[in-house]
Amino acid sequence: MAVGGVREGAPASSREAPRRGQGGRVGHAGSSGWLPYALLALPALVYGTFVVFPLASTVRVSFYDWNGLTPPVFVGLGNYVALMGDTLFWGALVHNGVFLLFYTVLPVGVAFLLVVLLTQERAVRGLALYRVGLFVPQVIPMVVVGVVWRWMYSPINGVVNVALGWFGADPRPFLGDVTTALPAVGLVATWVQYGFAMVLFLAGIQRIDRALFDAAAVDGAGPWARFRHITLPGLRGEIVVALTVSMIAAFRVFDLVFVMTRGGPANATNVVAFEIWRRAFQQREVGAAAAVATVLVVLILALSRLVLRLQESEQ
């Protein structure tokens, strides 16, 4: 009598042959050590072509004195030594440090405030509309943002000066004054950047167990205590991501400065990325620009690593 396609009384080896064959096929697929490398080949090729190779070329050019046209002259670390005493470079680096306040501290603080308001226990009508409206600045191209805000800061008919005139204040050239140009550009960056952190925090707060908030409320914890002991620890990962991304944006800022002030007035808004453009395309000092770019990359990687190490030490 045949049972399952195998005659009764057949040898054990013949009865178990299909099972071994099936297991052999699974083992063959699982033992393909080349498959992960084959799947990673195309992404690695794209990453190497558009990231690693340009970065390596920039580091190589930084060791030469080159104007982009004539044959380069090897100078070793000469470009880096020259940066040590370059006041324009250090001034631009200081301005990037100031932008950390407007790209990181203020946006994260504003995002926390908005998340608390949008996630309060009392239902808010049109909550989805509020979220979309608050996120809109993040998706507007930076060139458009720069053009619009440059008009809004205009001392003649700009919206900002018109609004200040309602309170009796005299119009001011915010982008033309060395004392107000950098904060004026920085506030625009804050307006753009807070939407990213807000969306991160909204997504993170939704995965926190609501039972924790209910238990804290039963124990008599107020809104601030619940925010400090439940919300903040629950959003630790999102906070690190927001700080890292916004910090990188603060050191990479170029388009906003280029459109609004071109680094002026009197280099008051000059930043490292704009200094790279100025040296490479205006002064034809490609080697020096490559050295500045290399220093900027190393600085960004070091600061990003520092933030990640702080997160690891707190866990």
How do you describe this structure in short?
This protein is mostly helical.
Question: How is the secondary structure organized here?
Answer:
Layout: E1 2-3, E2 6-7, H1 12-15, H2 17-30, H3 35-61, E3 64-65, E4 73-74, H4 78-84, H5 87-118, H6 127-139, H7 142-152, H8 159-165, H9 181-205, H10 210-218, H11 223-234, H12 236-252, H13 255-260, H14 272-282, H15 286-314
Antiparallel strand pairs: 1-2, 3-4
Looking at this protein, list some descriptive labels.
315 residues, mainly alpha, MetI-like fold, two-stranded antiparallel sheet, 15 helices, 4 strands, globular, disordered N terminus
Plain-language structure description:
With 315 residues, the chain is an all-alpha fold. The chain has one domain (78-314): MetI-like (MetI-like fold). The chain has 15 helices and four strands. It has helices at residues 12-15, 17-30, 35-61, 78-84, 87-118, 127-139, 142-152, 159-165, 181-205, 210-218, 223-234, 236-252, 255-260, 272-282, 286-314, and strands at residues 2-3, 6-7, 64-65, 73-74. The strands form two sheets. A two-stranded antiparallel ribbon has the order 1-2. A hairpin with a 2-residue loop joins strand 1 and strand 2 (6-7). The protein is globular. It starts with a strand and ends with a helix.
